[in-house]
Design brief:
This protein has 3 helices and no strands. The chain has 92 residues and is mainly α.
């Protein structure tokens, strides 16, 4: 999975549309291999981001959650710790 795409399911407060769009953008960039599409590809790229955002909204509304919601700050600290471990592994 692309490291820039964040976990969005089962948070309090719930993921925002902006967070879903950001993840959709990263996903489409990864799949297409384009960070910034050409003018000829812009409409298709934008449509894909919209479609993935919509699919993400449907998915997150449909999933059942078990246990207490995740805490954003705790998850942020876990992500930083993972990054530090990866960085140490790469440079160590």
């Amino acid at each position: 999975m692309c490291r820039n795409i964040k976990l969005l399911h089962h948070f309090e407060p719930p993921a925002t549309v902006e967070e879903m769009q950001a993840s959709a953008l990263q996903y489409v960039r990864k799949l297409s291999g384009m960070n910034e599409p050409s003018t000829a590809n812009q409409a298709a790229f934008d449509r894909a981001v919209k479609d993935v955002t919509r699919a993400t909204q449907v998915l997150l509304r449909s999933l059942e959650a078990h246990g207490p919601p995740r805490d954003r700050e705790v998850e942020r600290h876990k992500a930083r710790a993972r990054w530090k471990r990866r960085e140490a592994h790469l440079h160590g």
